[in-house]
Amino acid sequence: MAAQAYRIVSSEDSTIHDEPHIEGRRITVQFVHERVEGRGLSPQTVADRHDLALGDVYRALAYYHDNPDEMRRVERRRQRAAADNAHLTTDPENVRD
After folding, report:
1. Model-level pTM greater than 0.85?
2. Residue ranges per domain, the chain?
């Protein structure tokens, strides 16, 4: 487990992401939220799997819930990007042997 605690960088302050993430890492707040609250993984499991301090996982979750407007904007951006690029993906039923 990582010993260093990181801070959360907002979308506006980031130079590597267009969404909030753990400073010095490419792990986003949304990623942490999806793992813990979406998939039901424990915060400790997420910390262990991604070499994070447990506190960083909790900081990311707190940021997610403390900034609902920003997180909704992030989700809308992700949905638009997926829709705009849907033509670039392959439907498994269209793949030939």
Report:
1. no
2. 8-84
